[in-house]
Amino acid sequence: MTTLGPIDGEHPIPHHAIRSARIFGGDGGESEVATVYCPLKERSATVTECESCRRFHALHFDAPSRKTSVVCHSGHATSDTESADPLAGVSEHVNPAAPLAGIMTRDVICVRPEVPVDEIAALLVRHEISGMPVVDADGKPVGMVSRADVIRAAHERGDTEESERVTLHPADVVPLDIEQGFYVYEPVKVTARDVMTPVVVQLHESATIRQAAALMAYEGVHRLPVVSDDGRVVGILSSLDVLRWFGRSCGYLIPPTRKRG
Ligand code: SF4
């Protein structure tokens, strides 16, 4: 939780970390949905909604962490801000009833089901992540795709082996009605839909860390999408996020990392 200092002599007013879900489509297009958790409405609100809210004060950009927040007179601070302060969260008390919103990754990269696997591989490398949600047209999770899924797909379509060479003789060419020369088979396009693991469990943004840890352990998964009331992805929680939180809660100094599990 981060609270902005007094403004114009007023009491400190809370700010709410903005979460963003960037969704990559199969046509190369990209869209972004920015939300905050509104403590008054007890649900996610889009930043556009905040800007027209009578309690809205300003957008605040924190240069060290490069994060933007909504500052408003909601009267409550939310605990979903990952501070740039490496000592943030250090405590001698483990509180597993704390909301998972405080430890999840808020800037999520998502893909639509029709995005080719090659593009997913590029996104995983570019954003230094090991998995991402696959979402439908409404931004609701339909699957999860991981680095392992991409490697498996590449192996299964033969990218790791040399293909058998085939020579066409003129006699073969005639019946096929093609000119003599080199021909390349158009590879079958493998997309997120083909390699993803369908989403069977997800976490609501109001869930606690202990509920999240129990669910991940029970289901044997390393990452789960976090959704708002309307089912849209607002974050992603990995087992590494839970371990980082546990280490910090036990008093160990664990600096924030750019990598997202
Ligand atoms: S600006 Fe309004 S909608 Fe947005 S978080 Fe504050 S109280 Fe909620």
Written account of the structure:
The protein is globular, with a radius of gyration of 23 Å. It has a four-stranded mixed beta sheet. It has a three-stranded antiparallel beta sheet with strand order 1-6-5. A three-stranded antiparallel beta sheet has the order 8-9-10. Mean pLDDT is 81; it is low at 1-10 and 81-87. The protein is α+β, with helices and mostly antiparallel strands and 261 residues long. The protein has a single domain, classed as Roll (CBS-domain), CATH 3.10.580.10. It has helices at residues 47-51, 117-126, 147-156, 170-176, 192-195, 209-219, 239-249; strands at 15-17, 19-24, 30-38, 43-46, 56-62, 67-72, 107-111, 131-135, 141-146, 197-198, 203-204, 223-227, 233-238. α2 packs antiparallel against α3 (147-156). The chain binds iron/sulfur cluster.
Question: Topology, pairings included?
Answer:
Elements: E1 15-17, E2 19-24, E3 30-38, E4 43-46, H1 47-51, E5 56-62, E6 67-72, E7 107-111, H2 117-126, E8 131-135, E9 141-146, H3 147-156, H4 170-176, H5 192-195, E10 197-198, E11 203-204, H6 209-219, E12 223-227, E13 233-238, H7 239-249
Parallel strand pairs: 2-7, 11-12
Antiparallel strand pairs: 1-6, 2-3, 3-4, 5-6, 8-9, 9-10, 12-13
Helix pairs in contact: 2-3
